[in-house]
Design brief:
Elements: E1 3-9, E2 18-20, E3 41-43, H1 44-48, E4 55-61, E5 75-79, E6 89-94, E7 97-106, E8 109-113, E9 122-123, E10 130-140
Antiparallel strand pairs: 1-4, 2-3, 4-5, 5-10, 6-7, 6-10, 7-8, 8-9
């Protein structure tokens, strides 16, 4: 089960990171002649965060979402203002326990779907307390 450890608030006006950006794309196949200069800076806030007032970074623990490209130790950018929809990766609170799963809304009820065959899907019982804490918008994956 993917458990979330300590959400961190990204404060308004706080820059995550401003990094240099290359003016050329980098080949993932055969190498190409690379230019060794950079074309200025890119503000990662503009590319990663839509609403800074409702955005959090959470660290994932566990392997249940590996099929979605989310690994143990990755950080998710989670927007609490987005409306959760069928198919979204969400941070859910089920009976007081945090988990990261894919939200599935079916005619028979809500399913929190694992993205790893070694982990069962969670069929949310009708008497359970389920809160969708936020919708994951990006995964910061360690390489």
């Amino acid at each position: 089960m993917g458990v979330i450890i300590g959400p961190r608030v990204i404060g308004a006006g706080v820059s995550l990171l401003s990094v240099l950006i290359s003016p050329v794309q980098v080949a993932a196949g055969f190498p190409s002649p690379a230019q060794d200069y950079f074309d200025g800076r890119i503000d990662l806030n503009e590319h990663l965060i839509k609403d800074i007032t409702s955005t959090y970074v959470v660290r994932v623990s566990g392997e249940s979402m590996e099929g979605a490209g989310i690994s143990d130790g990755d950080e998710l950018i989670v927007n609490r203002a987005l409306e959760p929809r069928d198919g979204c990766v969400v941070v859910a609170v089920l009976d007081g326990e945090l988990t990261v799963k894919r939200l599935r809304i079916t005619p028979t009820g809500v399913v929190l779907q694992a993205e790893n065959a070694r982990y069962p899907n969670i069929l949310v019982p009708s008497l359970s307390e389920l809160t969708i804490w936020g919708v994951a918008t990006r995964c910061l994956h360690h390489v």
